[in-house]
Structure formats: C-alpha cells, structure tokens
Amino acid sequence: MTRVNIAIIGCGGITLQNHLPGIALCPDTKLTALCDSDPAVLERARQQTGVGVISTDYREILRREDVHAVVIATPNFTHAPIAQAAAAAGKHVLCEKPLALNAADARAMAAAADRAGVRHMTAFTYRFVPAMRYLRRLVAQGDLGEPRHYRSCRLQDWGTRNLGWRQIRRLAGTGELGDMLSHRIDFAHVLVGPMKRLVAHLLNLTPVREGAPNDTEDWVAIVAEFACGASGVLESSKLASGRNESWRSLDYVELNGSAASAVFITGQWNQLQFGRLGGPGLAPLPVPREFWTWPGSPRDPQAGDPLVTFRYDQMWEFVDAIRSGRPCDNTFHDGARAQAVMDAAVKSAEGRRWVELGGE
After folding, report:
1. Helices 182-191 & 130-140 angle (0-180, nearest 10)
2. Rounded to 5 degrees, what angle do the CA atoms 359, 256, 267 make?
3. Which of 86, 110, 269, 359 has the fewest Cβ atoms surrounding its Cβ within 10 A?
C-alpha cells in the first residue's frame, strides 16, 4: 500500500488534539473522510481540516473504497458495533479506550479484526511516553529483577463540570475506571504481566454535575495480585482539588523489583527515578535519545510541547503496522485484557469481595 487513507469516526476533542496531528506526521497518509453523528461537531471538524467527504452515518464511510483505515473516537457504547463493521468492510481500525463496555464485546472486536486480517490498535496513548518506553525496556532486559510491587496514581482536578455522555453509565460503561485507570492497567500488564485476582472500590462523589445526573464513579482504587506473585495498588481520581488536569497533573507509576526500583512520571518525559538494591535511594536516570521517539517516527522530539507531541507517535505506529503487515504494538487483545480487569473491578466493588480473573 502506497498511501494510507484514513477516516475519522467521532470528531470531538480527542480527535482534534491527538489524531489529526498524528496523521499529519505520517508521510503518504491522508485524512480522507470525517464522520460524526452530531452535524454541528462534524461541520466544525470539516472547517478545521478542509476535508470534503463527510457523513453522519459511519456505514456510509465504511462503504467507501478510498478509505483504508478508520479511527474510532466515539462514545464508548458505540465502539463495538463500529469496529466490527469496519473489520467486516476490510478497514484497519484504531479505537479509543476503553475498547468496549465489557470484556465479551472487546474480545468479539478482537476476534472480528483477526478474522478479517486487518490491523487493530487500542489507543493506550501513554505507552508512547519516552520514559515509559525506557522503563519497559529496563524491565524486559531484567534490570529490576523479579517484580514485587506495582503502584500507580493518577490524580486530576475535573471539578464538578458536566462531562456529557461520559457521566452516563449506559453510554460510558464506567467513569474514572475507563477514562484514566485503563491506561494504568495497561501499564501493569506491560510491566508486570496479567493479574490473578483483585479487590476494588469505586465512589461517586458528584451525583449531579452542573445540574445533570451523574451515575459514574469519580474515584477508583484496586488492590491486585499478579500471576507472577507481585502485588499491585492502583488509584485514580477526578476530584483531586488543585492538581490541575491532563499532562499537568500527577501520573505516577512505581515498580519495585528484587534488584532495583524505578519511578515513571508522565511530566518527566525524558527521565526516570531509579535505585539499586541496597543503594542510597532513587536518583534521576536520563532516558537515552533513542527512546525519545517511536522507532521510525519522523517526529522532532524537541519541537512543540513534549508532554503533548509524544501522542502523535501512536498514529505512526498504526500506519507503519498497516504498511508492514504486522500487528500493532497495542492491539484489541490488549484492550480486551484491560477491559476484563475493569469488569472484575466493578464486580468486586458491587459485591465487596475479591474477584478472580481466570487467567485474563
């Protein structure tokens, strides 16, 4: 395939912030069509991009022969039907997280994409942070020894503003669990491996947001046991007053191994904190330049805000996988594994008990 033509289905803020610049980064790649069920949102995206092919019906977009791949950035409850229809139409698919409303739907998406022989990718964007990539390498080559403890903490200040469909459980599935903790669950899988069992608690502290009902959680915490025997503690909140949000707020991951410990903080994109067993404590560990961009990406890591621009490498990985005919680094199967953990967390919180993950 010489040129990759991409259609975007769902033209909200994530699309404009992450996906459009990513497409522009990739040579011989063109944004060909736009789709959104809201005509006003669609028109704004058309004006911003200049794309002439637009539709409010994703089926119309999927019938186009000049569309090779799609990005799905729609409300969560629509991910499964759109992704399966796209795979059936022979389109490669990049889908926002959480992948689906439940693990069964997520697995069905992965199976459909596998059967169709298309590339599929879950948008776990933070895998592309240089410091995270370097930590992943250190773990893989055994620098930390056997993993013992994993912990993550994501604290943001979203206040009580209206979150639209994201605060409606039947449309979103979950709140903070799917919004933000899904990324950290993926971190845990990448760094430590599958979870064996967990216990979780979810809290909704804002049943009304700007006059509109909210039936999703603002805060979630998980205590987990991994299949390898390591422990895990994961927490995420929308209500950490004064913490700001997005890349300006706390996103912390620590892994303690038998030989060393390492800390990853999104805001410190080009360094880790690292310390050896019996040493004086954690100290800065610079991230080698080879990790500043994804392999092959033409992005200049010193252009723009590095806490934003790393996200554009996600599209590079997707397009390169299409051209190379290889699996994406983070597939629908990764999204389904994270969804299984989220399902177990909800089940645990509702039943106030430990839940086994059954080898997920």
Report:
1. 30
2. 100
3. 359
The predicted-structure confidence for 244-278, as pLDDT tens digits, reads as follows 998 889 999 999 999 999 999 988 999 999 999 99
Beta carbons of 297 and 67 less than 8 angstroms apart:
no
Quick: pLDDT tens for 11-34. Answer: 988 888 889 999 999 999 999 999
Residue type, 189: H
Beta bridge partners of 263: 254, 273
DSSP for residue 166: G
- How far from the centroid of its chain's Cα atoms is residue 178's Cα? 9
> CATH number of the domain that 176 lies in?
3.30.360.10
Residue showing tokens 């992005």: 299
Residue 331: inside a domain: no
How far apart are the C-alpha atoms of 138 and 134, rounded to whole Å?
Answer: 6
Domain range for 43 = 4-125
Q: How many domains does the chain have?
A: 2
Last residue of a domain, one of 125, 151, 170: 125
- 87 with 117, same domain: the answer is yes
Distance CA 3, CA 180 (A): 33
Q: At residue 240, what are phi and psi to the nearest 5 degrees? A: -90, 85
Q: What totals of helices (H) and strands (E) does the chain contain, helices first?
A: 13, 17
